[in-house]
């Protein structure tokens, strides 16, 4: 690809040189310098494109790792209890059946009503019914 760009620039330079009046013609050395400059620009563009691709891939990998952490915790079963009075949304989302909206509901409820006095108080949060409560009650604490 790079060679093709350099070759095209060189051919265009030769065509322009052949069609231009003698007073406007550049020497073959000047055309070669311009072609070399175009080659450097093409290399820089390729390097920048590669860097952008690598940055995008790194960001995707980070997102997948973050997402996978929650999935692994949910699939493997929680090993330590999460304190619902101090947990942030990401920690709450690691619980089975708790997504971003429900996690936000828990933190919003906590801000509006103060610390949870019992785990069962989670049922007061919109989106947590008996079924979801039963799935997480042994995975959370208020202490």
Question: Can you walk through the features of this model?
Answer:
- With 143 residues, this protein is mainly alpha-helical.
- The chain has two domains: 2-73; 82-141, DNA polymerase, domain 1 (Orthogonal Bundle), CATH 1.10.150.
- Helices cover 65% and strands 3% of the residues.
- It is built from five helices and two strands.
- Strands 1-2 form a two-stranded parallel ribbon.
- Helix 1 (2-19) packs antiparallel against helix 2 (28-76).
- The longest helix is centred in the middle third of the chain and has 49 residues, at 28-76.
- The chain is rod-shaped.
- Residues 66-74 have low confidence and may be disordered.
Classify the helix fraction into a percent range. 55-70%
Q: Strand content of the residues, in percent?
A: under 5%
Radius of gyration from the alpha-carbon trace, in angstroms: 31 Å
* SSE run: HHEHHHE
What can be said about the biggest beta sheet?
2 strands, parallel
Work out the number of β strands: 2
List low-confidence stretches.
Answer: 66-74
Q: Give the rounded overall mean pLDDT.
A: 74
How would you summarize what this structure contains?
This protein has 143 residues and is mainly α.
Question: How would you summarize the topology of this molecule?
Answer:
Layout: H1 2-19, H2 28-76, E1 82-83, H3 89-93, H4 100-113, H5 130-136, E2 140-141
Parallel strand pairs: 1-2
